[in-house]
């Protein structure tokens, strides 16, 4: 028993010594870990002092965006302000937080840029000093903001210069109603006529400060991104490169007046995979963005080379209406992305819209004037160019269409001639009724002359003479009416023939090329529809014209019968008196 107790005590002492040795061995490792941290950028507990320029850059960009929101029309005001406040309230106590704030700032700028390419209709409370009411707002990009009451009787536009709403006329109110319908997708995209303030005056580009000094006041001691050891440079560079690529997708900067001459080169630098941007370049990027936001929210002028439909280029003053429309000398332009050139549309909108555009170019920023804009940013104008004109529509009908139009032209000429001739006959007959002499230039005069100068005295013979004269004159009155009726019946049948031939051509295109490209089937479908329209357009007016001419001819025939019967009765009565017999009534 004593030996067992001693063994157990010795074993417990051995365990205790081992435990203390392990504890002492573990303590130095813990202390070393706290003194020598693992080298990691994102694991640092505090931001390096070299990150101060980045903080200043973010603060300057936030301040510039806040000023832009205050200058823009107050659309979606609460939503935009809340987004900006969320970004500004993000902490920057660590490098990771600073990088996240930078990313959220770029996102806020991109959302503001995206507003310029869309139109929107939404309902919101309109607050004023007197009261608040629910209205419908119409946002045209970042260019203009309108509201209309729910009953559609009152509209207004936001005046950015006076910072107040300006009531619109009843005529302009109807334009806002149509704009709301297009924004709600109740009508297809089309040119919208809206009242807008005139364009800004041309400014001297040399008088504007270069974009490099936009973030003046930042520390010059840390001028490049390489000088910061704590900012997550890889994340910052990736976010900036994606943002610069998106900025370049908003269109050529030469058409916006944004930035300086090196703006395109600046975006090209950010597109390089190996280029690490300097702090000055980041500042210029934000300056370029703010210039682009300013251009999107206004109507500006700038000189540019414009290529006419004949291919010749001329220097013109171009009017840029937000991100929607380009005008020059009252003509609508488009920008060819492949060529990088401004082109005058070969086919322009209606003459009234061109006059409106020419008049709008002469207005200033304090005057409202109507102008047609393209809410689809050029797509509606491009579709307008593709719409065939009248001659092209006629050509789509093919041989059957030309035959229908030939018959229609001949029928219209013949019908017009008959209408003029019957009108002239009616005028001459009215003169005959007022005259005692028998005029041979009208059917009534010729019939009365035959009755009076007829040599026979027999009642039956005179009746046959009058009946023959009436039939002859009625045939002259009905001349070509049967032919007009025939054309009115044939024209729809020819249209149906064109429909069948057009569908045959369509099915042949499907059999040869499949249904992948609808343009290959458009020829046959156009022939089918155009010939149908041509047949109906031919038949309906001719049928109406035939009805009018037939009614007029029948009216003249009834008048001739009445006066011919009266003349015959008078002739027989006169013969009875001449023969010495008592007067008899001839029935």
TrEMBL record:
<feature type="transmembrane region" description="Helical">
    <location>
        <begin position="524"/>
        <end position="545"/>
    </location>
</feature>
<keyword id="KW-0812">Transmembrane</keyword>
<keyword id="KW-0653">Protein transport</keyword>
<comment type="similarity">
    <text>Belongs to the exbB/tolQ family.</text>
</comment>
<feature type="transmembrane region" description="Helical">
    <location>
        <begin position="483"/>
        <end position="504"/>
    </location>
</feature>
<dbReference type="InterPro" id="IPR002898">
    <property type="entry name" value="MotA_ExbB_proton_chnl"/>
</dbReference>
<dbReference type="InterPro" id="IPR050790">
    <property type="entry name" value="ExbB/TolQ_transport"/>
</dbReference>
<feature type="transmembrane region" description="Helical">
    <location>
        <begin position="400"/>
        <end position="420"/>
    </location>
</feature>
<feature type="domain" description="MotA/TolQ/ExbB proton channel">
    <location>
        <begin position="444"/>
        <end position="555"/>
    </location>
</feature>
<keyword id="KW-0813">Transport</keyword>
<keyword id="KW-0472">Membrane</keyword>
<keyword id="KW-1003">Cell membrane</keyword>
<dbReference type="Pfam" id="PF01618">
    <property type="entry name" value="MotA_ExbB"/>
</dbReference>
<dbReference type="Pfam" id="PF11932">
    <property type="entry name" value="DUF3450"/>
</dbReference>
<keyword id="KW-1133">Transmembrane helix</keyword>
<dbReference type="InterPro" id="IPR016866">
    <property type="entry name" value="UCP028069"/>
</dbReference>
<keyword id="KW-0732">Signal</keyword>
<feature type="signal peptide">
    <location>
        <begin position="1"/>
        <end position="25"/>
    </location>
</feature>
<protein>
    <submittedName>
        <fullName>DUF3450 family protein</fullName>
    </submittedName>
</protein>
């Amino acid at each position: 028993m004593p030996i067992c107790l001693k063994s157990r005590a010795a074993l417990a002492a051995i365990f205790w010594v081992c435990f203390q040795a392990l504890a002492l061995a573990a303590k130095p490792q813990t202390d070393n870990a706290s003194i020598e941290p693992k080298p990691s950028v994102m694991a640092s507990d505090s931001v390096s002092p070299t990150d101060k320029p980045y903080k200043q850059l973010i603060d300057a960009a936030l301040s510039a965006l806040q000023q832009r929101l205050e200058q823009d029309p107050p659309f979606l005001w609460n939503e935009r302000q809340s987004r900006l406040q969320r970004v500004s309230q993000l902490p920057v106590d660590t490098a990771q937080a600073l990088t996240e704030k930078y990313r959220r700032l770029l996102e806020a700028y991109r959302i503001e840029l995206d507003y310029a390419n869309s139109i929107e209709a939404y309902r919101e409370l309109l607050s004023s000093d007197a009261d608040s009411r629910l209205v419908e707002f119409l946002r045209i990009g970042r260019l203009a903001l309108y509201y209309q009451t729910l009953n559609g009787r009152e509209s207004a536009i936001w005046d950015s210069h006076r910072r107040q709403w300006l009531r619109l006329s009843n005529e302009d109110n109807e334009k806002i109603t149509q704009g709301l319908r297009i924004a709600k997708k109740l009508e297809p995209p089309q040119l919208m006529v809206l009242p807008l303030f005139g364009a800004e005056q041309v400014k001297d580009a040399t008088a504007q400060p270069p974009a490099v000094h936009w973030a003046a006041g930042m520390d010059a001691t840390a001028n490049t991104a390489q000088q910061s050891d704590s900012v997550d440079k890889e994340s910052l560079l990736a976010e900036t490169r994606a943002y610069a690529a998106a900025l370049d997708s908003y269109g050529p900067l030469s058409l916006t007046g944004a930035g300086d001459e090196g703006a395109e080169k600046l975006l090209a630098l950010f597109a390089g995979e190996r280029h690490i941007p300097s702090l000055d370049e980041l500042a210029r990027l934000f300056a370029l963005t703010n210039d682009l936001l300013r251009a999107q929210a206004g109507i500006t002028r700038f000189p540019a080379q414009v290529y006419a439909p004949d291919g010749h280029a001329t220097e013109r003053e171009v009017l840029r209406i937000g991100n929607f429309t380009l005008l020059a000398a009252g003509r609508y332009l488009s920008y060819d992305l492949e060529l990088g050139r401004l082109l005058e549309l070969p086919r322009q909108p209606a003459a009234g819209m061109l006059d409106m555009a020419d008049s709008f170019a002469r207005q200033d920023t304090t005057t409202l004037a109507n102008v047609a804009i393209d809410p689809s940013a050029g797509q509606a104008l491009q579709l307008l160019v593709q719409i065939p004109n009248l001659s092209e529509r006629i050509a789509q009908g093919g041989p059957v269409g030309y035959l229908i139009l030939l018959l229609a032209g001949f029928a219209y000429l013949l019908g017009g001639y008959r209408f003029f001739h019957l009108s002239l006959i009616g005028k001459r007959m009215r003169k005959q009724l007022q005259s005692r002499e028998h005029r041979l230039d009208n059917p009534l005069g010729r019939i009365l002359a035959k009755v009076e100068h007829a040599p026979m005295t027999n009642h039956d013979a005179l009746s046959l003479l009058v009946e023959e004269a009436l039939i002859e004159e009625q045939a002259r009155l009905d001349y070509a009416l049967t032919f007009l009726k025939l054309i009115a019946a044939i024209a729809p049948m020819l249209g149906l023939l064109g429909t069948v031939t057009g569908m045959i051509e369509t099915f042949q295109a499907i059999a040869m090329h499949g249904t992948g490209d609808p343009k290959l089937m458009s020829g046959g479908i156009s022939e089918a529809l155009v010939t149908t329209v041509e047949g109906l357009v031919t038949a309906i007016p001719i049928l109406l014209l035939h009805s009018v001419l037939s009614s007029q001819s029948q009216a003249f025939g009834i008048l001739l019968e009445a006066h011919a019967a009266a003349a015959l009765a008078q002739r027989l009565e006169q013969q009875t008196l001449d023969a010495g017999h008592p007067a008899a009534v001839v029935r």
